[in-house]
Predict the 3D structure of the following.
Amino acid sequence: MNFLEALILKGRYDGAMRYVLNDLTIDTKARNVRRGDITLKLPDLSYDVLLALVKMAPDPLGSTEISQQAWGTDHVTNETISQRITLLRKSLDDDPKDPRYIRTVRGKGYAIAGQIACIEEPSRDTFDWLAKPKPRAMMTAGVAVLAGAAFLFLSFPKAALESGGALAQSSQNTDSQTLLQRARQQLSLHQSLETDRAIAMLREALVKDPDSFDARLTMSFALSTRATKFGGDEPDEQEAETIARALISERPGNSNAWSALAYSLGSQGRMNESLPAYRRAHQLDPANTAALSSAAYVLLLRGELHQALLLEMKAKQAGGNSRYAEIQIAQIMELIDHPSVSHWRERALALNPGQVVVLGEIARSHLRDGNPESALETLDQADGQDRVAPQILQLRGRANISLGRIAVARQILGEAGWRGEYDLAALDALSGDDDRANAIFNPVKLADIESDPDPQSRVQLAEIRSAQGKQDQALRLLSQAVSLGWRDARWLEHSPFLGELLASEGGKAIGDRIEREIEAQRMLIAATVPLTEFLARR
């Protein structure tokens, strides 16, 4: 009898449990793994594999069972499962030669190494929002602000079917095409588990037809999507880039391959490299309007609002339907205080109801307005696994900080993994604990940060320094953020960590500088007649 069956017979299993495995705590409600106070960065698929093994402990789990329970499909190769076990062991810091958590059972699969214990499930009050019913109506106040990676998701029937030929006659290639079609259907749902399943199907398709251009192209997009949207591994980002570069080597004139490369670079924060790749994609195929909208996003990050709007207008006039064009336009409209903000926001909501990125941008808008309660109400509308998406949790943690619910904020930010790391460091610093801050400001991490063109990372670092009372260093970081393109003065004004800094003369100078940059962009937009007509159109 396995561990889960024993719990059911004892009447102790109600679908939400916390398990202890050596020094690890596995929380099925929060879907995370902790070692002491540290939340390990575990992708959803790795977590699902671990949980499947825990539930079966002490019995081993074969490849078929792992495939069914973690991927939800039979189309997963032994090699793919082995690679996932390797990644899981790496995340847990487990040595396969002397395993503490996962052991290999020759001829039978994998099993938990050690004893499993069940402890009291987490406080229902802390995570009450996970069980709240979805509100009946979408919040309409506020404007979304795009942060983090651009979650471009090209239309796969267009982007992935690039070879243009008839279906292969062999049964092997037919099977590959069937798997490819099913994978695209899963990806179109824009959900975490479905994305994992799609990637598993694509790996199976590539085993059957390793030279398939379409399957490799779709795989590159899928891996970048998992990396940007669902907290995927660094190997996802690297594999997506490697695949895209190989596709370009084979077909240098293929627009979608260049889009895949640009997307993979953007998922790694290499925005300045992604911009020319997006432009090349559109140059090769003017009908690839999604590439234009994504290039516009990069320009938005760099503070080039006028140029970003010109690209969005061009994409729209060419019949483009990029998933996040409206929300990006709405963000720019809010930054320049344009009266068409509500129009573009409502269009974004109508096109993407309940979608993580849109909900996140609306929540950010509420936080920018100093309204954390509305931010939480908005975030409550996320569906399924999206309710515990890292970017949703991070915003929820920030909202609770603003409400003074520090203990709850700490818990939620811990669940957000690396996305909550900077906020937790700032909270610790406010209470005099600099351990997290010192870990972030180590030479290796600082070297990575210095090469990062994303201005938001500078703002987050400034919050930590300000919380430590190192105001001069915080001001320098904010100045760097503005130089890199940060134009969101209101976000700074309502930061729970920057109040004292912004009240200083240096802080006021930062605000004045942002306003001058915004005014320059506002004047450029107002002087471009086609743009003013485009924005006024309903």
